[in-house]
Amino acid sequence: MPEPVAERPARAPQPWHDYLAAAKQTRKAAGRWRTRRVMPDAALDFAGNDYLGLAREPKVREAAAEGARRFGAGAAASHLVSGHLAVHEVLEQELAEWLGRERALVFSTGYMANLGVIQALAGRDTAVFQDRLNHASLIDGAALAGARSRRFHHRDGEDLERLLSRSEAIRDASHDAPRKLIISDGVFSMDGDVAKVSELAAAAKRHSALLMIDDAHGVGVLGETGVGCTAGMSAEDVPVLVGTFGKALGTGGAFVAGDASLIEHITQFARSYVYTTAQPPAVTAATLEALNIVRGEPELRARLDDNVALFRREAARLNLPMAASTTPIQPLTLGDEARTLRWAATLDACGIAVGAIRPPTVPKGQARLRITLSARHTEADIERLLDGLERCRREDAP
Ligand SMILES: *Cc1c(COP(=O)(O)O)cnc(C)c1O
């Protein structure tokens, strides 16, 4: 009798709960486990992105209600089927006119806009250049497109230039220089500083690259008319302009604006546009009203600027280590993650909400409080925040 052939033991599949438990343990050990909490109604909000106070503005809320009454609770289909409603069309036209672009296209969220726009424009054959501190959705968009992202030092035109030149020295097998796409946040979401857009535009022109700016935190806030950090720049300078509605406009959703041919291409090829239900018309109607306020009430931006200036003046007087930002995003970098959480907890005990931002959202050793100002804050609100910060420092002292 021949020896029976030993059967190779089947590899036992790793049970899912083991995988989940291990992932949780690693995260927790790194001190990076996050918890959600229902935001108390009474909390003084210095954490959100409602820079103009439009999320709670009665006119915007009423427009949402009217939008739902008139067009329905949902759009019931994608844009290319039957979900593209009059209210979407009007918002796109108004946006294009306001931004000085031929066309604008509305997406359901900024994350989806960035995934779709980059996937529609880039592929394996595209060299993508991104600022090191770009938003996660931009990094993910390039990954989804199968394009390799080369990350240049934050706001460093020389480093970008070096990467652009280097990519040109390397030719692929067909000896074609790859198409090039340069991507940057406008206002950086965790630092509050602003991209040097003219420098990026010049580099893009020199190297026949396409420039994409995601000004999620600048739209509604910067520029005389509120168009953002690209104010005064044309589609020739900034061919791909993305902005979101969930920040200064107080609603939700996003747009990409540019030349008609570019926007039509994105409409055809962006999978996160084609294969999703159109934005609920209530949100679109609310955004239209928010846009009217952004255009018609520049005093909101003036009040916001005053609040930022007041906060910065007083924070300097208290010797708080504020970053150089002049936008409503005012990071207070504490470095240590536990310390950052302690400060946030102390503020929380004072009824004040600020963002406690830790890696991987920011680089290691740069944990920070992300304090945001709004036109809706009063001087008394800002004084309360400063009192809270003073208490944090007092209780933190050895
Ligand atoms: C918030 C943000 C997004 C994502 O927008 P959502 O509408 O919240 O999905 C994209 N880019 C930047 C720079 C952002 O700050």
What does this structure look like?
- There is one protein chain.
- The protein has 14 helices and eleven strands.
- The relative contact order is 0.16.
- The strands form two sheets. It has a seven-stranded mixed sheet, sandwiched between helices.
- It has 398 residues and is of the alpha/beta class.
- 43% of the residues lie in helices and 15% in strands.
- It has two domains: 58-296, Type I PLP-dependent aspartate aminotransferase-like (Major domain) (Aspartate Aminotransferase, domain 2); 299-396, Alpha-Beta Complex (Aspartate Aminotransferase, domain 1).
- Pyridoxal-5'-phosphate is lined by residues 109-111, 114, 135, 137, 185, 189, 214, 216-217, 244, 246, 254.
Summed up:
The protein has two domains: 58-296, 3-Layer(aba) Sandwich (Aspartate Aminotransferase, domain 2); 299-396, Alpha-Beta Complex (Aspartate Aminotransferase, domain 1). 43% of the residues lie in helices and 15% in strands. The protein contains 14 helices and eleven strands.
What brief labels describe this structure?
seven-stranded mixed beta sheet, four-stranded mixed beta sheet, 398 residues, Aminotrans_II_pyridoxalP_BS, Aminotransferase_I/II_large, transferase, Aspartate Aminotransferase, domain 2, EC 2.3.1.47, 14 helices, Aspartate Aminotransferase, domain 1, single chain, alpha/beta, pyridoxal phosphate, binds pyridoxal-5'-phosphate
